[in-house]
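Researcher: Quick test of sequence recovery. Tokens follow.
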């Protein structure tokens, strides 16, 4: 992934003889979302879509990869074409119901379809478990956004009822709604640019106020962590 232009990237790829796939990140949007501070940086993502390792690529060894490679696709998704293309298109839209249907049809003529069905099931199960875990530990916003993002794509699947029930619980529980509102405010404050001591002080004041509204639990811990981060940033800024 690079934030450089096509001419620079393709010239480099050709000169180095690079054989791996690459993509563009205009403006470094993904870099910022992932919190990448230095280049090069690498992330290892397991078959369920969870980031299980991150750091300098030189520190990523075979033992770490082998530990998380079980269930990985034998053919990367960007190479799916022909009949498999329909599975890819549905999956990339988070439409698991349609993806399962397309995989089943693919399996009638291509054994790869059976593998894809298994991978899709593993990914969906992993996401459902992740969102349930987030809800259990009090990370309401992650659970809500995750379930909401899956809702339309699981119509007719067993997960549909589970997601509807979870979203209904979150929408009616006053404590959960308050926690989610606090997380949204925390995310908003976290996106504030801290260029001066004044910026830090303003954010700290709002964080301290937010902390009083969430005296315990997951949100409280998250706010305290952000307060520590902002204070650390303030200490590095010149007056």
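Model:
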């Amino acid at each position: 992934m690079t934030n450089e232009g096509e001419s620079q990237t393709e010239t480099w790829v050709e000169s180095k003889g690079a054989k791996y796939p690459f993509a563009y990140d205009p403006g470094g949007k993904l870099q910022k979302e992932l919190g990448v501070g230095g280049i090069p940086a690498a992330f290892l993502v397991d078959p369920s879509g969870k980031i299980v390792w991150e750091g300098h690529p030189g520190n990523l060894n075979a033992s770490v990869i082998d530990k998380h490679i079980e269930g990985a696709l034998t053919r990367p998704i960007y190479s799916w074409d022909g009949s498999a293309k329909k599975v890819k298109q549905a999956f990339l839209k988070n439409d698991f119901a349609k993806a399962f249907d397309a995989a089943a049809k693919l399996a009638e003529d291509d054994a790869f379809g059976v593998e894809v069905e298994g991978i899709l099931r593993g990914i969906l199960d992993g996401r459902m478990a992740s969102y349930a875990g987030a809800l259990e530990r009090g990370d309401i916003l992650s659970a809500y956004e995750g379930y909401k993002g899956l809702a339309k794509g699981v119509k007719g699947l067993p997960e549909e009822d589970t997601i509807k029930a979870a979203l209904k619980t979150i929408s009616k529980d006053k404590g959960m709604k308050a926690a989610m509102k606090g997380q949204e405010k925390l995310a908003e404050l976290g996106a504030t640019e801290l260029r001066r001591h004044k910026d830090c002080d303003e954010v700290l004041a709002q964080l301290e106020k937010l902390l009083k509204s969430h005296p315990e639990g997951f949100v409280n811990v998250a706010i305290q962590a952000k307060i520590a981060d902002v204070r650390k940033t303030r200490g590095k800024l010149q007056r």
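The longest helix spans residues 112-137.
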